[in-house]
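So, can you check this one?
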Amino acid sequence: MLKIGVIGLGNIAQKAYLPVMAQMQDRVDWVLCTRQPAKLAQLQAQYHLESGCLSFDTLLEQPLDAVFIHTPTATHYQYVKQALLHGLHVFVDKPLSENPLEVAELYKLAASKERLLTVGFNRRFAPFLQKLNHLPDKQLINITKTRVATSQPTPFAIYDLMIHTIDTALFLADSLGTNYKIRPYCQQDANGNLQLAQLTIETPRQLISATLNLQSGTNQEIASLQTPHGLFTVDNLTRYTTQAAEDSRIQTAADWTSTLETRGFAPMIDAFITALETNGANPVPPESSLLTHQFCHEMVHFTK
């Protein structure tokens, strides 16, 4: 059985990770870590998880195989580096860092230690996006995320929200290689808050776009893909539409499918655990994740 630490027990951990982890106790002994004794006791009782501690240093003293890091982005570099230097595999929320030099350094360190460094891009594991990804002869890929009247500073919005559209677009695209062009576009208000952003990527065979609109009239996330065989669309990760010349079909997630399954969190966590158990490949390839972080950095740099 694996022994895995979990540091950072805030909203994302409680909503997306702990419910899944609690169902995997036949495979993993989870060790929760927070500086707040009351929160630790409450979450241990809620999810029936026995092991816990109150500091990261104490956590690292235990015979762990890996650690999940759900702390604020600004702390990722410190915690990830510490864990890798202790010889642990690491799963960390996106983004790994907003500093491209730190991202490159941490991936290089993980490679030198022969350890997995996996960034939590859950959309890659959403069943309907997996289905899109297996389509042949992709021509046009368009990922759009919209929010109603949302105000966020541009760097935060890009690394918090647009990073998903960029990463999903890269996941669905063929390997970019070196022969590609990118065209960033950003629209901000007078206070430096992002309103609209788009990244277009041109390759010899594909046209790819990732869009974030924070001043839309609706909250939506739409992935569309065109091939010679039709138009294929995934709406909010829950509905898959096929439109062809003589056929139109809609598939929705089964009623019994959990939200964490539909949104990719459950299969993502399972993929990481399976990779540890089988000495398998990183479920989020470093070269692809590096490109996602690089493009986010270029979007932020474009606005300055």
